[in-house]
Write a structure and sequence with these properties.
Blueprint (H helix, E strand, L loop, with lengths): L8 H10 L4 H14 L6 E4 L1 H17 L10 E5 L26 H8 L3 E6 L38 H8 L5 E6 L5 H7 L2 E4 L19 E6 L2 H11 L29 E5 L9 H16 L3 E5 L7 H16 L18 H12 L2 H14 L4 H22 L5 E5 L8 H6 L2 H5 L6 H6 L3 E8 L5 E8 L4 H15 L13
Helix pairs in contact: 2-3, 5-6, 7-16, 9-11, 9-12
Length: about 500
């Protein structure tokens, strides 16, 4: 029998149904893997008691012959941005240390109510602000991958780096992530897994600690495209508690994996091939185009003319919304409170000064600046207008193509030490290929396409029409079969 921690979500589902093992056996195997690989720092909170309780309940339901969901009994990890009832939720920030919500986020609640087993809460960049998982108040997450020619520890990407590392290192069957400007897709590319950012509004944001409300979207991080389809079906759906949740039909995403893309029109945007594009990234992109063409798809050259404005637009809109959302953390109602004499205003300032990290403070200041009197029109309002143009670029492109294929990230994973020394602007450039789809609110997915010369994963990104995750999944399934990506992280090969 395959080692339990090497199973995909689909395989685990089928094995549980056949009685080849129990949810408790699965859960114990993953809890053991979490303990063995704790040096990766992928989890902020582990909850073995909760996990085993839910696993036993799943086994009991199965024994009674009750109707079960597709993820019933499956051990998963939850990004520590999702509020979980009675289990600490920190958003990787000191300002929320010790906060135990009295309610469950809609997405994690759907997984819980569907029988999924929560193993713990994964690490992330503080308040999801980062591209390398090096801004967490609870320490860096380390990738389970190591370059062949360099022993330095690598970043797993960010902000969902803990979830990505946990899935890649086989510490869970799957994990939730959130994506604001690429925070599911980029870490998926860096760690050799599948990451799907659904259409904005497909998954509820209720109970997710907010970064930028018009951009944040929850999504699955998994081993395979099929697993992503299964998990998205459990996570998604209309939620009346979230005013941005879309009241649209919820299809059976797994049924979209037909393996047939004949006649599918795939757009290749010229703006995603700028001067200086890494030759390995360009070669992988060309290989992806060839895979789709060989499967019967039609390749169409397209233009997304405002792509070069996307990064600047994002880093005005997102900090502005963050500045507003993070104003609630004042030390009065929950989390950290610093009382060292003085008045109420001083308590606010000391609490926020001690509770927020450097990157969060930077984005609050940027956001406050662009929203301030005299600068609102010059920066924020102009950025919103450019955002509308970017969204229109995609709308025009989808009049002639069904999906768009691009690279996910401009490079493979880089060393943690290097990331700590890089200036913020250079770090922000990691999101250059993922930010446009976030600004437009359209679904996008990263899947592993191959390895770099250093033996590290490289990802390809598929972008689709709003609420057409099915077509993305169908095309991704074909690419996955062609890529035959079977590489496992260095950690699992006994590498150092």
């Amino acid at each position: 029998m395959t080692e339990l921690t090497n199973l995909t979500l689909a395989e685990a589902r089928d094995g549980l149904a056949k009685g080849e093992y129990t949810s408790v056996e699965l859960t114990e195997a993953f809890l053991g893997a979490m303990e063995a690989r704790k040096d990766l720092n992928a989890f902020i909170v582990t909850c073995p008691d909760v996990a085993l309780e839910r696993a036993k309940a799943s086994d009991a339901r199965r024994a009674k012959g009750e109707v079960l969901g597709p993820m019933d009994g499956a051990p998963v990890a939850i990004k520590d941005l999702f509020c979980t009832e009675g289990v600490q939720t920190t958003a990787a920030s000191k300002i929320l240390e010790g906060f135990k919500p009295q309610y469950e986020s809609t997405v994690s609640g759907k997984l819980r109510d569907g029988g999924a087993v929560m193993l713990g809460k994964t690490n992330l960049d503080e308040f999801a602000m980062g591209s390398a998982n090096i801004t967490s108040a609870y320490g860096n997450v380390t990738s389970p991958w190591v370059a062949e020619d360099d022993p330095e520890k690598l970043v797993p990407g960010g902000s969902s780096g803990g979830s990505a590392a946990a899935v890649s290192a086989r510490m869970c069957l799957a994990a939730t992530g959130t994506d604001t400007g690429g925070s599911i897709r980029q870490p998926a590319a860096f760690t050799g897994i599948v990451g799907l950012k659904p259409t904005y509004g497909r998954c509820s944001r209720w109970g997710i600690v907010a970064f930028a409300s018009s951009l944040d979207q929850a999504g699955p991080m998994t081993h395979t495209v099929r697993d992503a389809a299964i998990m998205l079906g459990q996570m998604a759906g209309f939620d009346p508690k979230d005013s941005t949740s879309a009241k649209v039909d919820l299809p059976d995403f797994e049924k979209a994996l037909t393996g047939d893309i004949r006649g599918l029109k795939v757009g290749i945007p010229k703006e995603y091939r700028p001067d200086g594009l890494d030759s390995e990234i360009a070669a992988l992109w060309d290989q992806g185009i060839a895979w789709l063409k060989d499967a019967g798809a039609e390749i169409v050259d397209i233009s997304l003319p405002h792509t070069d404005k996307a990064l600047a637009t994002y880093y005005i809109v997102a900090p502005a919304e963050a500045s507003s959302n993070l104003a609630r953390y004042d030390g009065v109602r929950y989390g950290l409170r610093v009382e060292e004499g003085g008045n109420l205003d001083e308590m606010y300032m000391k609490t926020r000064a001690k509770g927020f990290g450097k990157e969060v403070k930077r984005r609050i200041l940027i956001g406050t600046y662009v929203l301030s009197a005299g600068y609102y029109d010059a920066y924020y309002l102009k950025a919103q207008k450019v955002r509308a143009l970017i969204a229109n670029d995609f709308a025009e492109a989808f009049k002639t193509v069904d999906v768009i294929l691009t690279p996910t990230a401009p490079s493979d994973a880089f060393p943690i030490a290097g990331g700590n020394k890089v200036d913020p602007i250079t770090m922000y450039l990691n999101d250059v290929f993922t930010v446009p789809a976030s600004l437009a609110g359209v679904p996008a997915m990263s899947l592993p396409g191959g390895l770099s010369q250093k033996g590290l994963p490289l990802g390809l990104q598929l972008i689709g029409r709003p609420f057409d995750e099915e077509t993305i999944l169908r095309a991704a399934g074909v690419m996955e079969a062609a890529a035959e990506f079977t590489a496992v992280p260095t950690l699992l090969r006994g590498g150092k």
